[in-house]
Structure to design on (1027 residues):
């Protein structure tokens, strides 16, 4: 009896370790990217195809600044850049580089807005033309990322790898199956919660935030009320830059940096946005977790889980519903299902 | 000289002339109505007063000052306010936020003005936390009036405030408009429902093909047999 | 002087641009090599056909297809499945089970759709799909591993039907059309950018399938030695009349056979391109085409006149995708191999879009000239990049870190370069080189 209940605990520890924890972290990263997409959509009526590559751009900025931090020049002039307090030593250096990276990303996005998108807003072009322009921006950005940092995979996480490891957990609980939480996962969730809280506060409580919502709701009436569209545009890109650079960096800390993989994030991000309801910030977050949990639940191999739950039974396959190589296909299927049964998404977005 | 007046306005959309020497005016504490058949240039006249369309000749005078060449924004900060016919509230924002957005340009404390709106339309206070999109047609129109009042305007221009609402709601809206007038503002509105509008109006302008066909007090116009025959259906 | 040039250009854009392009190709032929010139020509023609398909979608209906790569890959896969010889051992090992699995898959989908349409409880629908999926997987897993175990180094897949290769091009067109129909059915009628997002997704998935389903396409092991509609070089070299010809033209036998094969391909490709353009133009002048133009020029009033826009757009999307699928099949046949890793969004989706935009969106001849120019730039961008790297390394020293860095990264400049060309054309001359007449942009 005792061993059976322990096995059930082990089984759930297994699921927590391999599905729930990674899905929460991945979902948070997607949510930040999806929030950026949904904000851009609400303000500019633009489905931004450049989002994945912009996230790569933000991450590359972090990597560049890290290299600068660790260069001989920086050491000679400022001493080694160390965290200010001992208890913060688990934090990867990338986080200190992040504010600068957000700045550069913001400059980049504002320049692209000035060079590309502003023109289409002025001539009141069809949404689809602007969408196509964003594809041009996507390739320019992708090219810049590869020129600056090369196309290969790299990692840039330092600091402590685990908040607590499988061994800590096993010693603490006595279970045979452990749960580990990576520092990057912990940071992802913490930062995401803070950012989302900030965004909702900003949109609902500040005058600038409300004016953005008003502009998104009814552009003509906003102009009539004296809201300055140029300022709305600027503020939007600044917030988008922060979300983009942070989402990219957190994803990179968690899974490593690979430009093509960032490019491919576009599909799960769009799926999150549309599942939740395009233009709805809450929808973007919920959609992101729907996508991340579906991806992990469907691609996980349940063999070990079943062994724990059904003693004496050993499945002869991995008991995996869908191969990991098809994880992006899951986003697509979710997207198609939502478009078929509820095109407005969970939180009634804008469909026309 | 009236408080707000458009004198001999001539205006065109591209090559198509809409207004020919059209004049309208309104005093403080007065309700003036522009009526006329479709395509008579009623809304165009209002756009010219607001500076959304530039007249090729004629002038717009506000409180003794020539404002013909000012932008819409500048006119609004002088004390003009406009309530469009459709899409005149922020549907995804609460009633309270709609009012705040109305006062976006003001740097001073707007809570008194918001209170004034609530005093004028008490139902809005009850519904202040609801999204404007969830309100009934009449209540929405009140939000729209309230939003426009937030700049503390002395003149309010209303574009067909009763378009597409039921007769009951129409009465409600007209009584709201009388409230606006009685609070000392000048109210100028364009209306399709000529009979009812002229009934409550102090002054009326009948526009046909961009020209002033008739003008006078509301009672005079209703009494005028020609106006009755042509525009009021008997 | 400047004025006359300008006038000549505006009145004879088509003639001038095609003359210049011919001159450039002749220049490459005389100065570099005819094999290279013909190679550029053939790939330009294939790209033209792809661009033509996309141009029909964009120019006729304003549909933004971001999945060109996927439709082209479907065409490529069709070549393998139709024209390769069947692998009998593999079929014996797992063919039957695979057939059952695929049929179960189809049945599951059909049952799901029927139950859904008959307004059954959604959990019933869900359960039936779930059960069907597991039943399918059961047969599928056995079958695919059995097939992949048969001579993995040589085959490890089912092979094809052994039918004529030209038939496979037609099938490629139909395969792309079928997928386009499904995607269009779901997304057309919703917001215009949903189609873009859905095509982006479906094309990625098609590539995953081709890369990962070894039993079907050999995956990343590539399928080589695909049959051709033209003679093989080695056989040509053995035939006496061919040797006489080579002798007559005074060209080496090897080079002459390569040229001859490429010329044969050029003949086929150009006939198809011309045929498609003639058909496209005839279609535009037909009653159907008038309806298309009416809708394109004013969707609102066309809808008011009772024209079914969504249906029309679906037709155009399917036709355009079929043309892309056909071109994809031609490309794989021309290369003689199906190489899944060669399907990069940059090379397929993006480059084709640059061709359409630069050539002149809405203008079919524009797509052709756009394809020639952009493909030529694309091919020449490699040598140009290396040349830049060389200049810098001469300047900064052979082994300097800057020179090495630039040599390593310079080819990514192509992305930035092509993106910038596209953005600039869209911004400053939205009509492209050959703007479509009678259309306000």
């Amino acid at each position: 009896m005792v061993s059976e209940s322990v096995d059930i605990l082990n089984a759930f520890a297994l699921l927590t370790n391999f599905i729930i924890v990674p899905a929460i972290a991945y979902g948070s990263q997607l949510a930040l990217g999806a929030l950026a997409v949904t904000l851009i959509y609400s303000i500019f009526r633009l489905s931004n195809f450049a989002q994945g590559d912009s996230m790569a751009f933000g991450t590359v900025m972090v990597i560049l600044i890290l290299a600068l931090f660790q260069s001989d020049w920086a050491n000679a002039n400022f001493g080694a850049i160390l965290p200010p307090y001992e208890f913060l030593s688990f934090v990867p250096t990338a986080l200190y580089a992040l504010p600068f990276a957000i700045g550069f990303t913001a400059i980049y996005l504002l320049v692209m807005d000035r060079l590309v998108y502003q023109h289409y807003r002025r001539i009141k072009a069809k949404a689809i033309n602007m969408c196509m322009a964003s594809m041009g921006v996507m390739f320019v950005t992708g090219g810049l990322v590869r020129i600056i940092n090369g196309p290969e995979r790299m990692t840039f996480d330092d600091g402590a790898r685990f908040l607590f490891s499988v061994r800590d957990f096993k010693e603490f609980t006595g279970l045979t199956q452990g749960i580990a939480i990576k520092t990057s996962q912990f940071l992802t969730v913490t930062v995401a919660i803070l950012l989302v809280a900030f965004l909702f506060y900003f949109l609902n409580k500040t005058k600038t935030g409300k004016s953005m919502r008003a502009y998104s709701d009814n552009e003509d009436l906003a102009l009539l009320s004296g809201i300055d569209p140029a300022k709305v545009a600027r503020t939007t890109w600044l917030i988008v830059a922060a979300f983009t650079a942070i989402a990219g960096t957190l994803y990179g800390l968690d899974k490593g940096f690979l430009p093509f993989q960032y490019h491919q994030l576009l599909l799960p991000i769009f799926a999150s946005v549309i599942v939740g309801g395009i233009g709805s910030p809450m929808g973007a977050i919920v959609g992101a977790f729907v996508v991340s949990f579906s991806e992990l639940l469907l691609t996980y191999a349940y063999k070990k889980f079943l062994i724990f739950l059904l003693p004496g039974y050993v499945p002869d396959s991995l008991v995996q519903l869908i191969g990991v190589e098809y994880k992006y296909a899951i986003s697509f299927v979710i997207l198609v299902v939502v478009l078929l049964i509820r095109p407005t998404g969970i939180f009634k977005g804008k469909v026309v | 000289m009236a408080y707000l007046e458009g004198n001999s306005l001539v205006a065109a959309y591209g090559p198509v002339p809409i207004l020919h020497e059209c004049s309208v005016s309104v005093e403080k504490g007065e309700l003036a109505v522009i009526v006329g058949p479709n395509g008579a240039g009623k809304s165009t006249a209002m756009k010219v007063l607001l500076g959304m369309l530039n007249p090729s000749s004629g002038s717009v005078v506000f409180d003794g000052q020539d404002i013909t060449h000012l932008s819409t924004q500048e006119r609004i900060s002088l004390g003009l306010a406009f309530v469009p016919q459709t899409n005149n509230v922020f549907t995804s924002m609460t009633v309270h936020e709609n009012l705040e957005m109305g006062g976006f340009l003001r740097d001073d404390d707007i809570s008194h003005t918001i209170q004034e709106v609530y005093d004028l339309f008490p139902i809005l206070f009850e519904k202040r936390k609801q999204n404007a999109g969830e309100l009934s047609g009449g209540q929405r129109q009140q939000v729209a009036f309230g939003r426009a009042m937030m700049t503390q305007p002395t003149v309010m221009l209303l574009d067909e405030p009763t378009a597409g609402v039921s007769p009951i709601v129409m009465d409600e809206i007209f009584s709201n408009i009388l409230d606006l007038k009685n609070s000392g503002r000048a109210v100028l509105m364009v209306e399709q429902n000529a009979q009812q509008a002229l009934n409550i109006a102090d002054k009326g302008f009948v526009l046909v093909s961009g020209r002033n066909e008739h003008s006078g007090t509301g009672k005079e116009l209703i009494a005028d047999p020609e106006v009755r025959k042509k525009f009021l259906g008997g | 002087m400047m004025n006359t040039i300008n006038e000549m250009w505006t009145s004879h854009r088509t003639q001038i641009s095609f003359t210049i392009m011919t001159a450039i190709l002749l220049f490459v032929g005389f100065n570099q090599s005819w094999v290279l010139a013909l190679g550029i020509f053939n790939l330009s023609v294939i790209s033209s056909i792809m661009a033509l398909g996309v141009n029909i979608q964009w120019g006729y209906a304003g549909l933004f297809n971001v999945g060109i790569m996927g439709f082209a890959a479907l065409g490529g896969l069709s070549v393998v499945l139709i024209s390769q010889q069947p692998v009998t051992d593999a079929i014996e090992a797992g063919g039957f089970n695979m057939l059952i699995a695929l049929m179960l898959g189809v049945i599951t989908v059909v049952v799901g759709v029927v139950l859904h349409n008959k307004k059954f409880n959604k959990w019933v629908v869900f359960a039936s799909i779930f059960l069907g999926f597991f039943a399918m997987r059961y047969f599928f897993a056995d079958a695919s591993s059995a097939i992949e175990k048969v001579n993995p180094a040589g085959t490890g897949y089912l092979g094809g039907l052994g039918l004529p290769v030209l038939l496979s091009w037609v099938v490629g067109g139909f395969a792309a059309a079928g997928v386009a129909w499904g995607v269009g059915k779901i997304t057309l009628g919703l917001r215009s950018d949903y189609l873009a997002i859905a095509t982006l997704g479906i094309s990625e998935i098609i590539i995953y399938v081709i890369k990962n389903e070894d039993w079907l396409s050999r995956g990343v092991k590539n399928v080589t030695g695909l049959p051709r509609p033209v003679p093989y070089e080695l056989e040509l070299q053995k035939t006496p009349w061919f040797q006489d010809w080579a002798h007559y033209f005074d060209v080496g036998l090897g080079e002459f056979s390569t040229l001859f094969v490429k010329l044969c391909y050029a003949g086929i490709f150009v006939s198809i391109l011309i045929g498609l353009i003639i058909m496209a133009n005839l279609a535009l002048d037909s009653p159907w085409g008038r309806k298309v133009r009416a809708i394109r020029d004013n969707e609102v009033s066309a809808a008011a006149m009772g024209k079914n826009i969504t249906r029309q757009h679906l037709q155009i999307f399917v036709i355009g995708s079929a043309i892309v699928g056909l071109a994809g099949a031609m490309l794989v046949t021309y290369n003689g191999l199906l190489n899944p890793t060669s399907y990069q969004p940059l090379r397929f989706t993006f480059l084709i879009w640059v061709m359409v935009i630069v050539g002149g969106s809405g203008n079919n001849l524009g797509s052709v000239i756009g394809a020639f120019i952009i493909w030529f730039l694309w091919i020449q961008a490699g040598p140009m990049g290396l040349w830049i790297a060389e200049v810098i390394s001469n300047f900064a020293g052979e082994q300097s870190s800057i020179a090495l860095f630039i040599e390593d990264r310079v080819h990514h400049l192509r992305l930035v370069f092509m993106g910038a060309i596209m953005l600039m054309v869209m911004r400053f001359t939205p009509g492209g080189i050959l703007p479509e007449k009678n259309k306000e942009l």
About this structure: Chain A has a mean pLDDT of 88. The two ends of chain A are 58 Å apart (CA to CA). The longest strand of chain A covers residues 162-164.
